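[job 4471] stage=fold_predict status=RUNNING
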Amino acid sequence: MTMMFEVEDLAYASPATVSRCGMVFLETKQLGWLALVKSFVANLPEKLQKQGELLLHKSQYLLNGVLGWTRKYGKFLVHQSEMTLVNTYLQLMKAYTKSYAEEDAKVPK
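[job 4471] inference complete, writing structure tokens
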């Protein structure tokens, strides 16, 4: 028997859970931040699905410039990976799209 678990993160996993499960680690440099943006766009509320492709292209354009600037000129007290910076951007975008998601939840299907 083979069991596969897919988790968002290991924030609540105990060491016993981690030792009993086979964990796959993907280094962020190999995965890239664009996967985060694509995942966000794929999970947009229904009303915003039509603008998903536009949001993907605009985010890619914006983030390429911003991340390039931060690599060259940015100074942080604590190191911030590109994935962390992009995730922060996506959390802000999620806050702006929250009202659309709430509307989708109210509409009977």
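[job 4471] summary: The radius of gyration is 17 Å.
[job 4471] exit 0
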